[in-house]
Amino acid sequence: MEWFIGFWILVGIFVGWCWYSKEKSSSSDMKMEQKSGVLPKGSFGWPLIGETLDFIAAGYTSQPVSFMEKRRSLYGKVFKTHILGTPIIVSTDPAVNKVVLQNHGNIFIPAYPKSIREIFGEYSILQTNGTLQKKVHALIGGFLRSPQFKSRITKDIEHHVKLTLTSWKDLPLLFVQEETQKFTFRVLVKALLSLDPSDDLDFLKREFNEFIKGLICLPIKLPGTRLYKSLKAKERIFKLVKKIVEQRKLGLEKSEDQEHQNTIPNDAVDVLLRDISGEQNDKQSLSLDFIISHIIELMIPGEETVPMSMTLAVKFLSDCPVALELLTVYIYTRIFICIQSSTLYINHHKIEFASF
């Protein structure tokens, strides 16, 4: 009986707190409007959670933009709402968006939901700016654009695509996004960590699936919540990646400086670690925790962005046979041209060798 009374006392406290928070939020909104002008129409929803549940639920339907469409029809192209723990203004007006993007970093500065800031942490790419951001961008960008990396990654992609296509022939039903996630993640992790298929790679894939689910969630960090589970998954990922990075760093320290400076970097970890060993006295030198956090975040395209793009490409090409036929002809034409160019190149060198 005591637990029943205690339960209702807690419910009463919670309801009273919600009412107080809503009243406080309303008064602060009025003060904000009086101080800086009138806010757009809209609703901040429930205290604390706002309209987050509606926003997340819409993402699991066949019309994920329904959340925005409904509010645009009610309040106009620009409206206020409260999602992921933050009151925000949403713009679906191209003219307004153009003004915002043109003044990025000047009048407007980047900001991210609390759940994303919590998950990415102190050394996140999102928190990196200025000269340090330019330095990391130059290091990673230069490596990804190098001819040596392009040649190696092309071979890796070809290898994994062949393995994936071979495995598809025995599947009665094919889920394109899930299947593309498998090999894009393997290719990306190989480029970042040089990690081949193994128990560590399987562990990394499982934990990364758990970690990335928390990017869009309520910013409540209690045991059992989505954010809490994602943070725990990131801790396990961080521990594994840290072990790999520390082993690689030890290997670089044992090798001679001149030897490893003249060799081509194997992956992104190699690039960033060479910056540490080459610039010990540089104030902008990268810390191990910084490198590990960036490597983890660079895995996100292999889990979400690229597989989603490939899935949509398959869908739209399947829906448009004409486009599929034109693309197929184009690919075969390019392959034929490449083969012809290679043949002419080889014959040219044979002639030069013979004349020599």
Fold and architecture overview:
- By secondary structure, the protein is mainly alpha-helical.
- It is 70% helix and 3% strand.
- It has 15 helices and two strands.
- It has helices at 2-36, 52-59, 66-75, 94-102, 114-120, 130-145, 147-168, 176-193, 199-212, 226-254, 257-262, 268-278, 288-297, 300-319, 321-355; strands at 78-83, 86-91.
- It has a two-stranded antiparallel sheet with strand order 1-2.
- A hairpin with a 2-residue loop joins strand 1 and strand 2 (86-91).
- The longest helix has 35 residues, at 2-36.
- It is globular.
Q: What can be said about this structure in brief?
A:
With 356 residues, this protein is mainly alpha-helical.
Keywords:
3% strand, iron ion binding, disordered N terminus, 356 residues, disordered C terminus, 2 strands, 70% helix, metal-binding
Topology:
Blueprint: H1 2-36, H2 52-59, H3 66-75, E1 78-83, E2 86-91, H4 94-102, H5 114-120, H6 130-145, H7 147-168, H8 176-193, H9 199-212, H10 226-254, H11 257-262, H12 268-278, H13 288-297, H14 300-319, H15 321-355
Antiparallel strand pairs: 1-2
Helix pairs in contact: 7-8, 8-14, 9-10, 10-12, 10-13, 12-13
Keywords: Iron, Membrane, Metal-binding, Transmembrane, Transmembrane helix
Pfam families: p450 (PF00067)
Organism: Populus deltoides (Eastern poplar)
